[in-house]
Amino acid sequence: AQKVTQAQTEISVVEKEDVTLDCVYETRDTTYYLFWYKQPPSGELVFLIRRNSFDEQNEISGRYSWNFQKSTSSFNFTITASQVVDSAVYFCALSEEGTGFQKLVFGTGTRLLVSP
Amino acid sequence: KAGVTQTPRYLIKTRGQQVTLSCSPISGHRSVSWYQQTPGQGLQFLFEYFSETQRNKGNFPGRFSGRQFSNSRSEMNVSTLELGDSALYLCASRIAGGPYEQYFGPGTRLTVT
Fold first, then answer.
1. Averaged pLDDT for residues A21-32
2. Largest pairwise CA distance in chain A
3. Short-list A71, A1, A4, A57, CA closest to A34
4. What are phi and psi of A70, to 5 degrees?
5. Per the CB < 8 Å rule, is A44 touching B101?
């Protein structure tokens, strides 16, 4: 069965610090997709990134960067120069794909608190 | 483009009652999924609909059901509510036919007393 582990329950940083959120996954599929979502206090899950299993290039988007390593089954997320607005719960997810369906398996989330 | 909308945003029901939640996907998205989020179990997949057909179902009792209409709007129903059904119910839509990302609505917060 597919599984996503986010071992960090809560991280507290001071504004402008860099922070890395860890994500480790388990799957027997050779083709799979990984996602990161942000959940601010309002409750809505906001899509951040999708990565497929055959593309191990790191990705950078502004202050956000993602490091995907198949050898360690990890898909870590780094926020550079954190800001108070980054405070939220961040979820890593793995998709189980089938003919016509997609089921996301989520980790337990990491709560990030950025203080001024 | 308007995002995923869910109604109502908040609901308070009594044990034993039933409830219907509604979801309107992003225009052009034909796949709709439902998730339940609780502090104890986290985010769990309920079911996914595409072309008015349930394509996949999570590990939930038969009290949880859903449907999708020809305009891709979806509803989920929970009958004989239990206290443990109190949760945030999130709907997500995506472009069907590929491993596209899901976009989530703001959720419906259901409280069962």
1. 93
2. 47
3. A4
4. -65, -30
5. no
| Chain A contact set for B25 (CB, 8 A) | none
Task: Give mean pLDDT, residues A102-109.
Answer: 93
**A72 — pLDDT class (breaks 50, 70, 90):** very high
Decide: helix, strand or coil at residue A43: coil
The three-point CA angle B90-A73-A53 to 5° equals: 70
Q: How far is B81 from chain A (nearest CA, A)?
A: 23
B86 residue type, one letter: S
Torsion-angle region of A109 (φ positive above 0: left; ψ -120 to 50: alpha; else: beta): left
Given a cut of 80, whether residue B68 has pLDDT beyond it is: yes
**Contact yes or no for A81/A18 (Cβ under 8 A):** yes
Integer Cα distance of A11 and A13 in angstroms: 7
- Please provide the DSSP assignment of B22-73 as one string: EEEPPTT--EEEEEEEETTTEEEEEEEEETTEEEEE-S--TTEEEEE-TTS-
